[in-house]
Amino acid sequence: MVRGPRTKWEMMAVGLAAALLLGVIPGLNAFTPAASALHISDFTINLYGKYLSYAVLAISVDLLWGYTGLLSLGQCLFFSLGGYALGMYLMLMIGRLGQYHSDLPDFMVFLGYPRLPSHWVPFRHFWFAAAAVVWVPGLVALVFGFLAFRSRIRGVYFSILTQALTYAATLMFFRNDFTFGGNNGFTDFKFIIGHDLRQPATQRALYLATAILLFATYGICRWLTTTKLGMVQRAIRDRENRVLFSGYATAHFKLFIFVLSAVIAGLAGALYVPQVGIINPNEMAPDKSLEAVVWVAVGGRGTLVGPVVGAIFVNALKSWATRAYPDLWPIILGTLFVVVVLFLPGGLVSLPGRLFARWRRSSAPPETPAPAEPTVGAPQLGADPASTSAPPESGLSAPASSPP
Asked: Phi and psi at residue 209, in whole multiples of 5°?
């Protein structure tokens, strides 16, 4: 595949971002004194890790919506399922250090559970919880996607169904139907794989793991979109009926992408939970999935880089706006979405190209029109009309008319 200038610039930007996120930021946190102006605090490291988790979630949305044309309004369900899977392990690692000094999680003691439910027991092992981060969101996506795509549900109906699935799951989690803590969820985590979550080294390692996941996800999705599968994805997005008439089973392609995006979202949720320190049903509410769609639209749909930029930009803006103008944040978010859709449909990542094209047009010298070639018999500019009259057909002059 021949790489164009745009791809080269993108690779350079990704390389610079990798150096910044994987080298500079952790180094400023670990090796600069707290009094230094260059020092990055542990709180800021956790905040950056949260932004990067959201960026991975945004890539999963873009893989579905931007490349396959499937607008899922339930992507945060899979994000939360991955978070809950690891959260169960983190809750069991608290042990007797909880408020009730019991082997059971605090909310189970408060609700009067006599013993640990059987489906919680395997989550005492980290390897099982790590595997559940992958297979739980993947299994839910597989079952739902198989039923939806087999019925050829597409377009707005698919979006409504994913939103309904998310809403139903949110209600069940709020009611504590799955013994997951109800509306309070999981919190007060203390250890992960024997390491104290409050230690700066552990927080830095979680941030690095999130950054590595982000670049690995970007690399895999970038490679995937350049293969034949990626070409079929875009064909399904643009003209699914033509793909069907060409003999391709589009349902299989859509199901694969749907399950893959769910797994990516689950991994992002698993790394989000220990850094933020809480997971509850609010994280899977339908409005959260709508926010993820806004990130992708603001950053640039169908670019992979754009969703990362959009997720980091919008969440950084949210962190500032909810402190400065907490009541105005929904208005700010809605205005931002409308402005981008109307005036910047390519998202923030298209802005440098637009500015560069405008600069080239403004700096280019004005084109002067070439002078027109004179035609035979046409009068020249500034010439005597008498001298440019057509010559007689013969050398004899026309006879003068005789007087009457």
From this structure: -60, -40
396 pLDDT higher than 50:
no
Is pLDDT at 196 greater than 70 in this prediction?
A: yes
Residue that has been written with the tokens 């007797």 in this structure? 96
Q: What angle do CA 267, 272, 274 make, to 5 degrees?
A: 110
Q: For the chain, what's the residue count?
A: 404
pLDDT band for position 5 (50/70/90)? low
User: HSE-up of 277 (CA within 13 Å, CB side)?
Assistant: 9
Contact predicate 265/60, CB 8 Å: yes
Nearest CA among 19, 67, 347 for reference residue 223: 67
Q: Do the Cβ atoms of 181 and 109 come closer than 8 Å? A: no
Least confident of 21-30, 58-67, 197-206, 353-362: 353-362
Contact 289, 74 (CB under 8 A): yes
DSSP H or E run through 186: strand 186-187
Give Cα 4 distance to the centre of its chain.
23
Burial 94-112 (b: 16+ CB within 10 A, else e): beeebeeeeebbbbbeeee
Q: Which of 124, 100, 285 is CA-nearest to residue 193?
A: 124
Residue in 32, 33, 30, 34 with CA at minimum distance from that of residue 201: 30
Q: Domain extents for the chain?
A: 13-351
Q: CA distances (Å), 288 to each of 140, 174, 293, in order? A: 19, 16, 9
Rounded CA separation 253/243 (Å): 11
Contact (CB, 8 A) for 269 and 83: yes
Measured CA to CA, the distance from residue 196 to residue 241 in angstroms comes to 54
Question: Residue 113: helix, strand or coil by DSSP?
Answer: coil
Exposure on the CB side of residue 250, measured as CA atoms within 13 A: 25
pLDDT at 269: 97
CA distance 49 to 315: 12
Task: Please give the C-alpha separations between residue 79 and each of 10, 60, 366, in angstroms, as whole numbers.
Answer: 27, 10, 54
